[in-house]
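Below is a concrete protein record.
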Amino acid sequence: MKKKVFIYDTTLRDGSQGEDVSFTLEDKLRIALKLDELGIDYVEGGWPGSNPKDMYFFREIKKYNLKNIKISAFGSTAKPDTKPEKDSNIQTLLKAETEWITIFGKTWDFHVKEALRIGLDDNLKLIEGSISYLRKKGRKVIYDAEHFFDGYRANPEYAFKTIESAINGGAELICLCDTNGGTIPTILAKIINDFKKRFKIPFGIHCHNDCELAVSNSVTAVENGAIQVQGTFNGFGERCGNANLVSIIPVIQLKLNIPVLTEDKLKKLKETARYIYEIANLPPPKNQPFVGESAFAHKGGVHVSAITKNASTYEHIPPELVGNRRRILISDLSGKSNIFFKAKEFNIDLDSKDPVTIDILNRLKELELQGFQFEGAEASFELLMMEAIGQRRKYFELMGFRVIDEKRKEGEMPIAEATVMIKVGGHIEHTAAVGNGPVNALDNALRKALERFYPELKDVKLLDYKVRVLSSDKGTAAGVRVLIESGDKDDKWGTVGVSQNIIEASYQALVDSIEYKLYKEHRKKNR
């Protein structure tokens, strides 16, 4: 077996520098514990010299019994004309009390001259002196060679002198940084091999994604001998982000056959990625490789027909290896294979040669022509299938509803009120409710009327509500599609409604959501 590659996560520091990404102290602790659970090797907790929150993190994380991760503090070399023992940044790194410290220094002569405004030799002394001081204090030091690849292209001899200074200071590992994200893999490989001719020290890689090559460059570095990869979960980071560890980990492990995580930990990759999106309050992109909802989703009938015979025809790995799942999408591109596959997934007894399959397919295409979309509304599609085979139960009958949206005074919010009349069995229920807008009022009125008969509806929450205009050329008279995501403590499901009236479209999606919950509970009781 090949030597293990160590993963160094910098989501809590570099990742938090991304636009729209902000972590509280509690967020950072929760993410660190999740990464420990996953089996990551190093987690960079932050830059203790930059803000009090990061220093609090280092204090609080010591209270937890970490099983896998080594916590690293991050900072820079000492300031020019300041001895390390007098440098506030270096001293706060020591106060973090971590075994590992990562410091960066200037490798590109352009930065030394323009940013630091000091002599090239003075920069070499800063690097060696800072690392040497930290080593004497008992710390293990990773040296981040900032802008290494740009520095090499500008002045290779000086770039190598900065590495020599770091090694002379006692660095345990040199991390080569593509800080501007502008290097391409072939050039990166050439520079790394030149580095290896000069130095025998273990090295890592730290890439940014400005050319969308951070993952590729990181994998190339591993192929050329890097034993550590630095990156962030979900590629969070400044500008275009950092190297995405969610892609790098499975590529190294499953494509290069180099161990990173244990098999059981790798299966938690999607769960961890989604967890960190949730903490960051950002929606996970569906098309994210390996862990996105669309990563193993199949839509075209030809594709679906092939994967039902052998999944390898259109999947590069089994999705279960990274904790994902195969999905068959339903649309007007669907063939019989899609319908049959979904029936099997929903435990509906339907043969691929059954005439009902053709009926469902034709009905599907007719509805999509009207503007329905079932890719994000699988609950509505399951109910459609149950109706086609004569097994959809009618839990209630609508006798009518009315929605009033009234604005009484300029500057005040409108008041929304909905009244519904429904029939459950032989009983007629007539009730009203107010809400934050007409759709919310209608939702509240429906629940109020039905919860007396179906108390399980109290568990249902509306998680998301989207409206899409279908024919913008008709202006305010255009038809709309409403997609609703609902959930309870166990599950989430999507439903859809289409109409020229937004309230009617919303009502359709709301009713499907309610009926799906009741259908789900009924199915659970009869297992």
In short: The domain at 6-261 is CATH 3.20.20.70 (TIM Barrel). The CA atoms of residues 136 and 170 lie 9 Å apart. The mean pLDDT is 91. The first strand starts at residue 6 and ends at 9.
